[in-house]
Every structure is written in C-alpha cells, then in structure tokens.
Request: fold
Amino acid sequence: MTARSTTRPLSPHLQHYRPEITSILSVLHRATGIVLGLGAVGLAWWITALALGGSAQSVTHWLLTSWLGYLALFGWTFALGFHLCNGVRHLFWDAGMGFEMDSVRRSGKAAVGGALLLTVIVWIVVIV
Amino acid sequence: MSDAKNTDKKSKADDAAKDTAKNDDQQHQNDKQKDEIKVARTQTDPSLLTRLAQRTAYRRATALGASGTGAAIWTVQRMTALALIPLALWFLVSILSMLHAPATTAAAWLGAPWNAALIGAFVLVALRHGTIGFRVILEDYVHSEGWRVASIALVYAIAALSALATVVGLAVLIFTHIGG
Amino acid sequence: MAEFRLPPNSRLGQGKTWDSPSDAKKPREFRVYRFDPASDDHPRMDSFTLDLDETGPMVLDAILKIIDEVDPSLALRRSCREGVCGSCAMNINGKNGLACLTHIDEQGDGPITLTPLPHLEIIKDLVGSLETLYAQYEMIEPWMKADGPEPERERLQTPEDREKLNGSYECVLCFCCATACPSYWWNGDKYLGPAVLLQAHRWLADSRDDHTGERLDALDDPFRLYRCHTIMNCTSACPKGLNPAKAIAETKRKLAQRR
Ligand code: HEM
Ligand code: SF4
Ligand code: SF4
Ligand code: FES
Reply:
C-alpha cells in the first residue's frame, strides 16, 4: 500500500486478531451486499429475457428452475433477508441508536435470527 | 569526499560574494540551508531528523485535503437503503411465488402496470444502492489509482446497462400486456 | 490491492524457548513477539514460562518480571501501570488492550500471546511506530479555536454542554481502537481511524469552539471519515470503555444534517 520508508516488519493483523460476532457480521453484510448486487443484474436480465420472449425466455426459465437455479435463489433470499435485517441495524446506528456493546451483540443475533426466519417463511410459501 | 567538494565550492563562492554585503547575507542564508540538508542526510542531529519525519508524516496525512464528497454519497446510500426496505419486502412476498408459474404467466404479471412500476423501482434503487456499495468496497481494497478508477467505472457501466435493460424490458412487457 | 497477508520480512521466524523455573507451582506460558532491528531479519515468537504465584496479577506485571529476571532486552512502552498514560497498549491473545489493566486470570487457559498493536511498523519487540497516528491527530487540530476577544476569566460552559465532552476527554490515546480497526489496516494512510475521529468529535462537541463548520469540512471525505463501516472492533477494544464508533456515527449525522 503506502510506500514504506523503512524495512521494519509489520505487526500481525488480520491473521491474528480475534474475530467477534460484530466483525463477522460486518463481513457477512459485505458478502451479502455483493451477492445482492449480482442478483440485481440477474433480475435486470430476467426482465429483459421475459420481454424478449422466445428462446431467451425459455432458457432463462429453465435455468431458474434447475436445481442450480433454486440453490442460487435460495442463497439470494438468505442474502436479502440478512442484508435487510442488518441494514436496518445499520440505519439505527446511523440514527445514533444501539451503540452499547451488549446491545450491538444482541441486535447482531437478532439480525441473523430475522434473516433465517425470513428465508424459511419465503421458501415455505414457494414450496407450498 | 563530498565534504571536500563542498568546501571547495564554498570558498569559490565566498570569493565572488565579497563584493557587496547583501550578497554576503544571501550566501550566508544558502550556506545555512545547505548545512541543514547535510545534517539531515548525515544523521548527526537526531532531533532534526525527527522533525523532518514528523513533517513528512503530517504532509502525508493532510495530502490533497478533504474532497467534500463523503457526506453526499453516504446520504444517497442511506436514502436508497431506506427505500429498499418496503420494496424488498414486497419483492420477497410477491415475486418468489412466481417461480412455479410458467414463464408466460410471469411475463403477464410483470406487464401489469403496478407490478411493473414496483419491480422497476426495486431494481433501479437496488442498482443505485449497490453501485455505491461496490464503489466503497473497491475503494477499500483497490489501492492503485488506475485500477480503482477503472473498476469503479466498470461497475457504473454494468449498472447503467442493467437499468436501461430493465426500463426498456418493462415498457415492452406493459405494452404487450395492454395491447393483447 | 490491499495486502491481507504479512509482507515476507514480517512473517514469523523460529523463536526461542527460555528456561522456566523448575519448581513453579502455577506455571504459565507467555508467547511474546520479538524483533530486534540490530540483529533480526524476521520477527519471532519467544516462549517464557513464569510462576504465577510469584507474579503480579496483571499482564504488565508478567512482562516486567520477564524483563527483570529472564531477558532484560525485551522492549515495550509503559509508564503509569494504572491505565492513564496509554503507553502499554498491545495485542493480548488476539485482542487489543492495556497490559496494565488486563488481568492474567481473565485470559482463560493456555499460553498468553503478546504481540504489538496490529498493522504497525515495528521498531523493536512490542514497540510499534505511532508516527502516522500522531500526525493524523495533529491534523484535526486538537485545540480550542475560539473567535472574539480573549475572555478575562475562563471560557464559560453550561453543565449540559460540559457533559457532551464525557466519553471523549477520557481518551488516553493508546490507539487500541485504531489498530483494531480493519479499515484502518487497509487504508490507514488516508483514513483517520477511530481514536483520531473520537478526538475530532470531541472538538465538534465543545460549545466553546467556534470552528465547527471548518472542522466538518476537513472531515467530509470518503477516506478520512467514511471508511468507517461500523465494524465495532474499536469500541470492543477500548480499555477505557469509550465508544469511538458512536462518535463517528454522530459526526456522520452532523455532516448529513447540514446538507
Ligand atoms: C437488492 C438490494 C440490495 C443491494 C444490491 C445491496 C447492496 C449493497 C452493497 C454492495 C453494499 C456495500 C457493502 C459494504 O460496504 O460492505 C451495501 C451496503 C449497505 N446496504 Fe445494501 N443492498 C441491498 C439492499 C439493502 C436493503 C434492503 C437495505 C435496508 C436496510 C440495505 C442497507 C444497506 C446499508 C445500511 C449499507 C451500508 C453498510 C455500511 O456502512 O457498510 N441494503 N448494500
Ligand atoms: S466502527 Fe468504524 S472505526 Fe470502529 S473498528 Fe469499525 S470501521 Fe473501524
Ligand atoms: S478511544 Fe479508547 S482505545 Fe481509542 S485511543 Fe482512546 S482510550 Fe485508547
Ligand atoms: S502503563 Fe500506563 S496505561 Fe498501561
């Protein structure tokens, strides 16, 4: 990164720092954000394919309803569920609320719980 | 060796400077400056070196100053996040039940103006929000200026293309739906 | 790219295991990061075993015992031994803290690993360079800037306004928070980090300071302030129980309010 003026060693950081629920969920928010971004482009493609009709439509439909498509959609639902719940957590922080360490840890667990709940409910609806 | 050269130069310069007092003064200034540089290079005065190092660190920290664009982009990120809460919930309950249906039903459903408007809003706002998100991530990790600018530009291009496709696609679906 | 791994010269080499007291009733191993700029080309982890029955209760006591009785060349910063000078900050078993405020018996079982504050250039052993952090601190101009004539007596402040400084003035600038922050690891040359941003907020919050607008201008930058992603490593690490993440959020809110 920066041009180093010396050849001093760099102390251990990522390799060594103890993960906590807070830092793990922060990484998860980022990962789910990336998944959702890819999904949004996919969604744009899906709409385009439906409008195009013909083989574009049927191939896309076949892809989406294959087991790989279902797996991707399942993953995407969880990503949206978690990113949504954790996003709400972020917005509360931005409003200056819920910053004490124990409430931060509690809201983190709630976000994971909410994400799992949302995913399960959605897929029960899909399957039934 | 460089010392000998320096004194040699200095004595020559001294000769030339004898003419006026003003010149002499100037020369004195120059010599002092030269001395400071020499001291800093030869590490004879640790305090001067420390001062130099602090000065360098301070300049590196201030760099080119604040861009004044941080709050603007942050606010858009939060606004779009806020708008995405209801849109995402609506999307989750309505669109996934489309999966069982044949593709033609999905096309018809998307052609209904209200559905088209809502899903259009969802995709466009998500693209705007996601673009900022990707930009922030790239800024975090891509440190070479060229690659950073290029990768962010690529993200923006993909997002713009997707947005265009969404709008045109939805327009087509609405017209086919209403038309027939 | 951000470098997630340690550069080659920073990877740990083979360390030394020092003789331990043979009659120890409560032996405990301490693994300590060592780097000697005069002789080492790689840092290493040395192993010391102390008898806890003969050692004071704090991690700092153990280090001082090592220096006194085993290896006097071990370098660290320390002064007050009661958490007010902020100098004995280091990474203890993977988390930043002050050695003088950290109880040995709260560190569970197994060896206690001591490394310098993360992602700093190491001068010697547990001593990292804080040069950039001090420069960044200087940059936020941590002094009062009041307009108008000098008052004859002290500058007045209501008790309510004074209360707004609670939670920032107690900071001892140990940099446990800044060096715990992943964003500071990847972009510490441009991002100011939680310690400095907490102090920046301290001057935004001071009713006696007249330069809030300019101070906010200087922070309105994607890198200086907005690298904070509320990871919370900072607040979790602060040995004084302060909340830099919250101060950063409040600073962002102030910046949003004036838009
Ligand atoms: C399909 C929709 C969405 C996409 C594509 C998306 C994408 C992203 C991406 C890529 C990031 C960057 C992550 C990072 O910086 O680590 C992000 C951040 C964020 N998202 Fe979303 N997101 C979506 C929906 C939502 C929703 C529904 C919310 C609602 C609350 C939300 C709230 C946030 C917030 C608050 C951040 C900033 C987090 C931070 O400061 O690091 N997002 N999003
Ligand atoms: S909350 Fe902000 S400052 Fe604190 S560790 Fe996280 S990114 Fe760093
Ligand atoms: S906020 Fe806490 S951890 Fe950070 S420098 Fe101040 S006292 Fe240390
Ligand atoms: S020695 Fe002063 S804070 Fe630990």
User: Anything to note?
Assistant: Residues C 78-81, 83-88, 98, 100 surround FE2/S2 (inorganic) cluster (ligand 4) (CB under 6 Å). Chain A is about 75% helix and 0% strand.
